[in-house]
Amino acid sequence: MRMQTPDEALAIAAANGDREAFAALLDRHYDRVFALSFRLTGARSEAEDLAQDICCALPAKLASYRQEARFSTWLYRVTVNAAHDRRRRAATRARAADGWGDWEVNRRAGIAEEAEAQDWLSATMARLSPELRDTVALTLGEDLSQREAAEVLGVSEGTIAWRMSEVKKRLRDFARAEGML
Amino acid sequence: MTDDLDKLRTGLASLPPAPDPAAKAKAVAQAMESFERAQETAQPPRPISDRSQRAGFVTGVREMLMKLTTRPALTMTASLAAIAVALTIYPTLRQGAPLPQAAAPKPVAAPATAPAAASLPAPEDTRTTTGEVTAAPATPPAEIKGQAPAQPAPGVVLLEQRAESDAVAAVEGPSPQDFADTGLAGGPLSLTDAAPEMEPMMEAAPATVAAKRVLPDALVPLPEPDTEAFANAPSNPVMIAAEDPVSTFSIDTDTASYAVIRSSLSRGALPPPEAVRIEEMVNYFPYGYAAPDAGAPPFRTSVNLFQTPWNADTELLRIGIQGRLPAIAERPPLNLVFLVDTSGSMQDADKLPLLKQSLRLMLPDLRAEDRVAIVAYAGSAGTVLEPTAASDRATILAALDRLDAGGSTAGAEGLALAYQVAEAMGGDGAEGHVSRILLATDGDFNVGLSDPGALKDFVAAKRDGGTYLSVLGFGRGNLDDATMQALAQNGNGTAAYIDTLSEAQKVLSDQLSGALFPIANDVKIQIEFNPAVVAEYRLIGYETRALAREDFNNDKVDAGEIGAGHQVTALYEVTPVGSPAILNDPLRYGAAQDNALPDATGDLAWLKLRYKDPGASTSRLIETPVSPVAGAADADARWAAAIAGMGQLLTGARYLGDWGWDEAIALAGGARGDDPFGYRAEALRLMRLAQSIAQ
To answer: Low complexity: which segments have biased composition (chain B) (predicted)?
Structure first.
């Protein structure tokens, strides 16, 4: 069975036209793509659309998979890039369509306890710049190491470390601002 | 505050609930569908001879779709005759011989007969099909010989001429008898002679074949479409003056091709041959033609004949046209509408930022009574700057600064809005203003444009309203040169490609008064060679501008414009009667009476020009004989010849013999002349670059 075949081998087989290999890859990775999409966009519908777009583009994209990186890393990169493209396309349509921005707009509507916890998360995410948000989604959300996150985002490890310290600084600032209210 | 970081971590971890199974199923189903399609459209990155048959067909289909659908240049009149030729020729070559690259390194002159046949598949096939190849040019009659039915469609010409020159290429190889004699190895070997022509054929011809086989599959969207598209056709073939003495074309003042070539070479790559339009390269440079006299027609023609640098037995006929130099102080005020593409693809440094700088450069050259408006299009079109007097520079600069790239491109909508603004500017009491839209784009007209033909028709309809449209191309990657060409040609404007700030200055500032201020519309050239003096002739360049013979006198047929101060140069390579350079043998049967042609005049040719005054609907005619006496070539003539040689070297150098980059560089180096702006020095540098890249 295919269960033991490594992702990388499946990806190569799929790129060469192996239908089953492609189906196996999809099955293994859809959840992961969806989860990262959710963390990057902050909205279920956005995440579903994004994940679907990525899956549809995957056959064409696989041709460029070179085995230089692990498949999961490569797929993370594809996902982040797709999210970027989507965000850029959406940028002029309306600022508010920017995923987490919606959360911020609707924040005051939340009443329930649980929603309140979500509120804090969405408000925080919405106040981070896109780069910081991507970094947070990968390191905290997907539990990647700084080295892995750096590989996905195509930046140096030092940049990730710096971004995380930026995030801490921002969180502190937010907390202080909240406290003063 | 690691607390907060942990809180963020917990929040994110709890965030994505399991994906909705329905959504997942849908995504997976669509992905599998997309996978199936990808398998059908799979193709290797480069066309090499061992690719699968199927991939070849699909490439062909894709080519065809590009030409039939996305390339607006091609309108409805695609000739069935040309397609029929392609059908006959293509499969034979495909099966009979590997692609030229593969064939080239093996000059196996296998000694005839059986052993050779054993080593290669299907000898019978090849022999018969070779016969078909030679027969093919005979089957499609008159229309393939010479001018395409022409006007609205440079693209049509493109297909037809392609087929035509393919046919010529095929015939020029050894005869079928040779193939039979030398066995099969002779087949591929001799085909390498035609190598430059094979390539276009592989692109053009398979389309038609493939269309029959896999069309249904091919209609699904293709995964990664080519994003650069260039308008071109294979080089004009040698014509026999006795059979086809008349050559007709529209003038072309565009220079975009040269800048594209420069951008490619500067990046260390040879430009794709289809991006090379020789007439645009030659016309890029200023020449010292005599200006027209006052009261005379708005332009003056100078004709010279001199020896061809690459062939001592032929002559180059240079036709130079100089538009009346602008009386700068008297030019009519301008209404300029900048239609700026601000789609996401424009955000690169060599696109929108370069465009903004270019427009800033241009502002000081405008005058107080000129007016400027800016329309941006991306996602939805909008007016960024209402019509504003050019003297109000602060407002214009502020509007420029507001331009920001993002969103997708709704080209058609933006164009409609720009015309609306331009018409409003022309209509509110600004008598005598010249209205012009300057469309600045990377050519990515991908959204809101269901039918490229409709966009072109729209532009053509607006053209009659007196508003001109020029196109400025920026950036590489998805430059849709073909669309740009088609829009500018139909909008009575010019297409230029801007890759550097100095190019922006040349296009916008130096030529502001000229390019934007037309002095003659629909300028067509028709030249009739005297078969008693000229045996063969060949027009160098202008492939996309060919007109049918009868279109010359038809004022309904659109052609190129000349702006104030514009210069246009056309070159013919002419083989005199009796020259050893004649390529075609005389016919054995018939046509013998041609020898008795009256030679009353001794002229080389009769040159006719038609043009319309701006706003006029009927054309005027200028006629002049061309003397057969060859003179010495001045620096300008040698320069034009060197650039024409460069263009041919970049596109296959079919007629150049041993003449190569060294000779081109030497010729150009001796013809630099004054060169106040350094354009020629730059071209020399590009030639050297091309030489080293080509090695």
So the answer is: 21-31, 114-137
pLDDT at B577 over 50: yes
Q: Answer yes or no: is the ipTM higher than 0.85.
A: no
Mutate to test the interface with A, among B2, B4, B20 (most CBs of A within 10 A): B4
Both tokens of residue B481? 């040169």
Domain covering A1-93, topology: Rna Polymerase Sigma Factor; Chain: A (1.10.1740)
% residues pLDDT > 90 (chain B): 10
Q: Quickly state the pLDDT bin for B518 (edges 50, 70, 90).
A: confident
Q: Cβ B27–A89 below 8 Å, yes or no?
A: no
Task: Write phi, then psi, for B28 (nearest 5 degrees).
Answer: -65, -45
pLDDT at residue number B643 = 94
Q: Do B8 and A58 touch (CB under 8 A)?
A: no
- What counts of helices (H) and strands (E) characterise chain A? 9, 0
Nearest CA in chain A to B20: A48
Nearest neighbour of A26 by CB, restricted to B20, B28, B42: B28
Question: Residue A170: in which H helix or E strand, if any?
Answer: helix A157-180
User: Which chain A residues are within 8 Å of B29, Cβ to Cβ?
Assistant: none
The residue that leads in pLDDT, B520 or B314, is B314
| Partner residue opposite A56 with nearest CB, options B1, B24, B30 | B30
Better-scored residue on pLDDT, B320 or B206 = B320
CATH 3.40.1410.10 fits domain B329-516? no
> Which DSSP helix (H) or strand (E) runs through A178?
helix A157-180
First to last CA, chain A: 60
How distant is the Cα of A19 from the closest Cα of chain B, in angstroms?
8
**Cβ–Cβ contact B24 with A under 8 A:** yes
Count contacts between A and B (CB, < 8 Å).
125
Confidence of residue A92 (pLDDT cuts 50, 70, 90): low
DSSP-derived letter for residue B265 is H
The amino acid sitting at A13 is A
Q: Give the strand pairing for B534-540 and B495-498.
A: unpaired
Distances (CA, A) of B410 to B290, B399, B496: 44, 20, 21
Residue B269: what pLDDT?
86
CB B147 within 8 A of CB B548: yes
CB contact under 8 A, B11 and A121: yes
C-alpha separations of B21 from A32, B62, B191, B384 in Å: 14, 36, 58, 46
Residue B687 is classified by DSSP as H
Q: Residue B604 in contact with residue B529, Cβ under 8 Å? A: yes
- Among A60-64, B86-90, B193-197, B619-623, the range of highest mean pLDDT: B619-623
**Tokens describing residue B374:** 């800016």
CATH of domain B239-326+519-582+598-694: 2.60.40.1230
Half-sphere exposure of B85 (CA within 13 A, CB side): 29
Domain residue extents for chain B: 40-218, 239-326+519-582+598-694, 329-516
Residue B596 burial (CB count, 10 A): 8
| A110 class by beta-carbon count within 10 Å (0-12 exposed, 13-18 middle, 19+ buried) | middle
The A residues from 105 to 144 touching B (CB cutoff 8 Å) are: 117-118, 120-121, 124, 136-137, 140-141, 143
Q: What's the token pair of residue B285?
A: 């440079």
Burial class (CB in 10 A: 0-12, 13-18, 19+), A62: buried
Strands B371-378 and B334-341: parallel
Core vs surface per residue B434-451: b (16+ CB within 10 A) or e: bbbbbbbbbbbbbbbbee
